[in-house]
Amino acid sequence: MSDLRIINVEKQYKQPQQKDNPAFSLHPINLTIHEGEFFSLLGPSGCGKTSLLKLVAGLLQADNGEIWIGDQNLTQVPSEARNFAMVFQQSLLFPHMTVEDNVAFGLKMQKVDKKQRLSKARDMLEHVGLQSFGSRFPDELSGGQQQRVALARALVANPRVLLMDEPFSALDPGLREEMRDLLSRIQLEFHVTVLFVTHDREEAFSLSDRIAVMSRGEFLQVGTAKELYERPLTTKVASFLGLKNIIEGNVESGYFRSTDGSFEFIVDATTKNGLSCLIVRPEAMQLVTEDSPTLISGIQIQGIVEQMKFNHGFYSVKISAGESHLTCSLTSQQAATLCVGQTIALQIEKKELWVVND
Amino acid sequence: MKPQLFIKISLSLLVFLLMFLPFIPLILSSLSFGWQWPAIIPDSISFRAWDYVLFGSSGTWQAVGVSLLIALIVTIINILLAVPAANALVRNSFRGKWLMEAIIFAPIIIPPFVAVMGIHLTFLKLGLTETIVGVVLAHLSPTLPYMVRAIMISYQTLSVDWEDQARMLGAGPVSRFTLVVLPHLLPGIVAGASLSILISLSQYLITFIIGSGQVVTLSILLFPFISGGDPAIASAYSLLFAGMAIMTLFGLDVLLKKYYQQKKAVTNKG
Predict the structure, then answer these.
(1) A315 close to A309: Cβ distance less than 8 angstroms
(2) Looking at A34-100, which runs of residues are DSSP E strands?
(3) What is the pLDDT of residue B270?
(4) Which end of chain B, N or C, is less packed with Cβ atoms under 10 Å?
(5) Could you tell me if B182 lies within 8 Å of chain A, comparing CB atoms?
(6) Helices B182-202, B132-156: crossing angle, 10 deg rounding
(7) Which chain B residues are closer than 8 Å to A90 by Cβ?
(8) For position B146, what pLDDT does the model report?
């Protein structure tokens, strides 16, 4: 097995890189990425995810820590000898070379002879759907095509790890989805380990086997998309993943009680006492109607509809319950019976109530 | 006729006139023999001046050779010095960077005469006066700033990401420079080289003081005739000088175009 292991890697910037950025540091990070795994680093800009990627690539020198792949220590190995590949936000195709020569560049560096490297390059171009573009120059291609060439160029030399730094963020939304599908397909086909940096949670969710949520040079949580979304460890993770229904409260003697008193229910014995937050996913709240089944375990809340917004395929409805404002997702049919200002009842199953201590 | 076309034609005509009009009296003067005031064109045509310049024992061709040799060596040294200097000045931020830049660009602002007096004294002690080596060294200071400036601008448009990308594809330092950095810098290098050649060719004062009349370039030959010797010969030399400069630039242009064509031909074949 050749897993990628990041052991206690740490980096401090003494001087601020930009005027408005404070001095930045990457706290010691430990991570193992399995062979063939698609791993994403997700976080807001300036959280250190690109720095971590460049540390793994060897383009930045770490203050401390080691990078291993399998049983080989790569910490002192220069970037060009690590046999990693990287795709940047810009495609960075060499403008004075044809598409084919660009793709073959990595093989040329490995001293593969010309015939062989060009046939491999053409093969790779076929995989990304650009077989007839080999003799063109990069400036004759569109942005999406250029990024596909960049992907082909990165993969042609069979890299041990493919590093990607927000590769699709400069593309149109439609094109971005197309590229995601292509990347997923190619990643399965070549069984390459991918370390992917993005600030787009949808992108991370749809592509990754596992995701690390980062903030200020630290990992907040590492897990699968489902784990992160349904069981976020902190409110920070929850709010970064777009969960806005965070209700402050207190856990005491087996009960959670919200600050305004509108939520109260029994929690697991394992939940720690003290200040806590309740996190409810918008789709976990069910509208109570005359013929809806009553829940055996769960809670019911009353709220006033404040706003309704159509949001591809469903309605996102804002309600106020006590002092807190909640957003829930309802189907168009359910939403058709509602109007702003109406009081409605919602119920939440017990297993959907998620309490975290910050 | 469309008004746009009319403007285009008249502007081209104007530029043409401004560029070539001054050459007409120069040509006439080089062919004249005692061209005096009320005559609009010289009353007698003579090839005496051209005969002296091109075929006489004037040492013209040797001077042309020396001028070009000095300009070429100066330019090559400039490229070798300016590429790392521009790299350091653009890519790094270090203490006293402004001072470094000021020292490199000072020769543009400070009159060459000031510097050349000091250089002359030093070169006398080192035994470098009256030699081509000495003149080449002295020509570096007024030409280097332009070369550094041109290459710095090329470097400013080359993001480090390009080299990082090449690195991630397995390119070592030498491959990175020759395959990625150099092609990007080439237009800047050519611009700097053109300036460097032209400035080196037209140096009179520095060549005269350091070369002490022993290193004879075309400017050295030209000067005494301009300052009152023989206007016909001065005109012929001026034309020759302009021709030499234009031919050099033209040659550089042809070489560059050939390089790009070759590049394209190679990639087309592959």
Answers:
(1) yes
(2) 38-42, 64-69, 72-73, 84-87
(3) 40
(4) N
(5) no
(6) 140
(7) 161
(8) 93
Q: Is the pLDDT of residue A19 over 70?
A: no
CB contact under 8 A, A163 and B170: no
**CA A280 vs CA A54, A60, A220, A230, A338: distances in Å:** 36, 40, 19, 9, 21
Q: Is residue B6 part of a domain?
A: no
Q: Name the residue range of residue B84's domain.
A: 61-217
Q: What is the pTM of this model?
A: 0.80
Consecutive H or E run containing A62: none
CATH number at residue B155: 1.10.3720.10
Q: Do A109 and B267 touch (CB under 8 A)?
A: no
Cβ-Cβ contacts under 8 Å, B165 against chain A: 86, 88, 92
Between chains, do A94 and B164 touch, taking CB under 8 Å as contact?
Answer: no
* Number of domains, chain B: 1
- Report the C-alpha gap between B144 and B74 in whole angstroms: 9
Which residues in chain A are contacts of B175 at CB distance < 8 A?
109
- Residue B166 touches partner A, C-beta closer than 8 Å: yes
Q: Across all residues in chain A, what is the average pLDDT?
A: 87
CA atoms in the 13 A half-sphere facing the CB of B256: 16
Residue B31 within a domain: no
Contact B176, B163 (CB under 8 A): yes
Spell out the residues 6+ positions from residue A41 whose beta carbon is closer than 8 angstroms to its own. A49, A52, A53, A195, A196, A197, A198, A211, A212, A214
CA distance A134 to chain B (A): 10
Residue A54 neighbours by CB distance under 10 Å: 20
**Domains (ranges, CATH) in chain A?**
4-236 (3.40.50.300), 244-356 (2.40.50.100)
> Residue A96 is nearest to which of B161, B165, B263, comparing CB atoms?
B263
**What would the mean pLDDT of A148-162 be, rounded to a whole number?**
92
